[in-house]
């Protein structure tokens, strides 16, 4: 039996189901909520090979006519050319507004498909079937969709909430361990933002989360609740939603500084280092005790995540250059540096006007 979390308000409320073997139940869950709908299943080549047949059979058994649309795996698919092929394929299948777009894949497929669903016929029904840990705890919740452009990541998109999220925790068994760890960093993030008891629970139970079973379901459910809570308070990121960027100002700068080369650094690894740095920086500014960053680093290292700039292979540019990458980050407004800092584990806050000179000195000492 799956856990169910109800998120969102009134007529836009939807269920997140979390549990094993949900792909097998996708057809009945969709048919129950969207009677008579036909479906386009958007997926990438890797996920198609592993999990597409299961969901296709389930849809068929529930009497749902489905068309599979495959895109190449990888961030490059969050682009105008791939969006166009997806939109064309949905229209070629003659789907209408009350038919459903199903995203079967990680955050790339979710962001791309959600955007397509948001714009075809001015908004089609949308179901997320996230297949990475990152997508289950982060990108499938909250309604942000979109693609990248030459000007930067995620600059074109819409807010489009799903009608249903099916997080099958068993599909994560086929995920490469490095991808699982990267998603785990985002899971830890919610504990560090405002759930100290969740962080402590992860410290005690992370091995079971990696192994699968009940603990994994609990962790994903907690993470979804945490994200949904923040999004409910601030859907369009005018305030509190920025807390979800804990570790991301440093993390994005490191991704940019390593040329988005996933052999050197994947997003979740950048976030892990970024969270460790945010905690160290907070201690340096006398906001938090050094015990806190030591605890954070110890946990991240225990699961095999990096925590230091020197953990990134291939070398980094100097502190000046890193600061430039930070200042280019879209969360920087009017020359002031905005960071998510902390007063301790689970006590993160939005710090505006952090002096660039402090950041520079900290980076110099951290390199
Ligand atoms: P991804 O979608 O590229 O998936 C990572 C890799 O795992 C891919 O190669 C994929 O083919 C493979 N894969 C997926 N599921 C698998 C499975 N079950 N077994 C084996 N392999 C599998 O990357 P991601 O980390 O899931 O998502 C990253 C994207 O999410 C970024 O584009 C980021 O911008 C976006 N994102 C969006 C939000 C949001 O709120 N919309 C939040 C965070 C991240
Ligand atoms: Zn992230």
Compute the gyration radius: what is it?
20 Å
Q: Per the principal axes of the C-alpha atoms, what is the gross shape?
A: globular
Biggest sheet overview: 7 strands, mixed
Count every helix, treating DSSP H or I runs of 4 or more residues as helices. Answer: 13
CATH topology of the largest domain: Dehydroquinate synthase-like, alpha domain
Derived structural class: alpha/beta
Strand content: 15-25%
The low-confidence runs, each spanning 5 or more residues with pLDDT under 50, are: none
Which ligands, by name, code or SMILES, are bound?
nicotinamide-adenine-dinucleotide, zinc ion
In the CATH hierarchy, what is the architecture of the largest domain at level 2? Answer: Up-down Bundle
The helix fraction, in percent, is: 40-55%
SSE string, helices as H and strands as E: EEHEHEHEHEHEEEHHHHHHHEEH
First-to-last CA distance: 48 Å
Number of domains: 2
At the fourth level of CATH, the homologous superfamily of the largest domain is Dehydroquinate synthase-like - alpha domain
- Quick check: average pLDDT? 95
Please, what is the oligomeric state? Answer: single chain
Instruction: Write out the strand line-up for the largest beta sheet, numbering strands in chain order.
Output: 1-2-9-6-5-3-4
Number of strands: 11
By CATH reckoning, the class of the largest domain would read Mainly Alpha
